[in-house]
Amino acid sequence: MVAATLTVPVAVLAYLVRVQAGPVVDLDQSAVRVGTDLTREQPVVRALLLTWQTAFQARWVNLAVTLLCLWVWRRHGLRTRALWAFVTLMLTWGLNLVVKTGVQRARPVVDEAVAYAPGFSFPSGHAMNTAAAGLVVTALVWPLLGPRARVAVPLVAGLLVVLTGIDRVLLGVHYPSDVVAGVVLGFAVAGGSYLGYVGWSPVHPTDLPARS
């Protein structure tokens, strides 16, 4: 129910993007223009943004999360939780491609572009994948965390999502609406999947930390 509710505003936004609604398009284009002007004037910032773009590509983020899943499974015995995390992230990755193909929004066109990216623009794959990965990782390691870590891990995950969204706009490869849609969809898929997982198996022996 929560996931379905979150997808409603994304569907509305996708429709507005599809029909080129004036206010949305104007805001998006203004933000990209301002962002790329700023990036173009700051070579160091541009270099950092391009590095962030590469590091947070879905393939590298998902590889890191997959290795974490294996570690949580083998070291702590959280088999079903690790499997849930892996499957959820892979489904999110695939869903992004499906939605992009359905909406078919072109990338921003920027004079003196500071970066290039292939494919369609809506929703942002970087933002969607990072949002899903942040929630998946938080849920995955939650049983292993102490009180302080249960505050720190979600905060760090949220910060990475925000910085990734900013990166996409400042590089001019995504509009703000692409980023917003990506983040909401990422949280919706991962959150809905976790609620389904908990409802299916609220207490499972392989979800308990292994005793040393």
UniProtKB/TrEMBL annotation:
Pfam families: PAP2. InterPro entries: PAP2/HPO, PAP2/HPO_sf. SUPFAM superfamilies: Acid phosphatase/Vanadium-dependent haloperoxidase (SSF48317). Keywords: Membrane, Transmembrane, Transmembrane helix. Residues 81-194 form the Phosphatidic acid phosphatase type 2/haloperoxidase domain. It comes from the Bacteria. Gene3D superfamilies: Phosphatidic acid phosphatase type 2/haloperoxidase. The chain crosses the membrane at residues 82-99, 126-145, 152-173, 179-200. This is Phosphatase PAP2 family protein.
